[in-house]
Amino acid sequence: MAIKSVRCLEWADDRLRLLDQRVLPHQETWLEYQTWPEVAEAIRDMVVRGAPAIGVAAAYGMALAAKAGEDRSVAHAGLAASRPTAVNLFWALDRISALPDWSFEAVLREARMIELEDLQMNLAIGNHGMRLIPNPARILTICNTGALATAGHGTALGVIRSCVAEGQDVFVYSCETRPRQQGLRLTAYELMAEDIPFASIADGAAASLMRAGKIDCVIAGADRIAANGDTANKIGTYMLAVAAHHHSIPFYIAAPSSTLDPSLTDGGQIPIEEREASELTHIEGVGVAPVGCPVFNPAFDVTPGELITAIITEEGVFRPPYSF
Ligand code: MRU
């Protein structure tokens, strides 16, 4: 199976290198990071984004802190403050902080392990998930959940990749994903790189495509899944789940177990990031709203577990009622 044709991060020459996702698809610029505060800022500013990729980047940020002989709890707290919703960030930081050995070698080894395991989990998710997808299938997805959001292959987009690798006939409808346009910029970039047939759509087009009988299933990623299956993902995901339910279309979530947060009983406890107004009021740096326009810009929403037909992890396919 073809994997890692697109990569978003790498460790080389004792530095973390990140593909700058703020300027994709028009520029492929790799930036280098030598300190953990720089990595924290890169996560906050979405040079790197996507829950699993954020976790891997933070783990390498901890390796940079260990290399510089810095206090591990300070680096942990600083990296943890970068973005609040994706639990993979905290999962990776906790895993590194629990190491008995704070040597650079030990931390780097664990960070590399976190990266490798993420790729392996995504391949397993792909294998489980593709069995749920009809052949042929017209699949609706949102945001970017591919190699740019993970250590490789992807979660929801990984399931689509696995279907294609098995020779299944798929056509992807990819939501633009306002306001940061991860679908239009990043998912389109990945799908075009692999010649996977697709069309980008405006977010508001999704429900009418369902009504027109053009969608066989919806598959999305996740930033945090509570014990009862309530799932935080990119803003707009909940609308897709409601519309899919209305049209009796299966709605799937694909995520590694590092995205599960069994400490939260339900999705109401998931912290939802609010980002700056300019993400909404400006497009490619150009202001399109009246100056001073009031804005509410939550980056994620929560889909109740009962609207999710199945949750696919590397462990298999889970169905409601969920109990993680
Ligand atoms: O704000 P982003 O781009 O980090 O949001 C990403 C998403 O919502 C993804 O769907 C999620 O992190 C899963 S990525 C495999």
Describe the model:
By secondary structure, the protein is α/β, with parallel strands linked by helices. It folds into two domains: 9-123, Four Helix Bundle (Hemerythrin (Met), subunit A) (Up-down Bundle); 131-318, Translation initiation factor eif-2b, domain 2 (Rossmann fold, 3-Layer(aba) Sandwich). It has ten helices and 16 strands. The chain has helices at 36-44, 51-67, 72-80, 87-97, 104-130, 156-165, 182-193, 206-211, 237-246, 278-281; strands at residues 9-12, 15-19, 30-33, 137-141, 170-175, 198-201, 217-220, 224-226, 231-234, 251-254, 260-261, 282-283, 286-287, 300-303, 310-313, 316-318. A seven-stranded mixed β-sheet has the order 6-5-4-7-10-15-16. Strand 5, helix 7 and strand 6 form a beta-alpha-beta unit. Helix 1 (36-44) packs antiparallel against helix 2, helix 1 (36-44) runs parallel beside helix 3 (72-80) and helix 2 (51-67) packs parallel to helix 4 (87-97). It is globular, with a radius of gyration of 19 Å. The two termini are 30 Å apart. The mean pLDDT is 97. The structure holds 5-S-methyl-1-O-phosphono-5-thio-D-ribulose. 5-S-methyl-1-O-phosphono-5-thio-D-ribulose (MRU) binds at residues 49-52, 86, 143, 145, 149-150, 155, 182, 221-223, 233-234, 299.
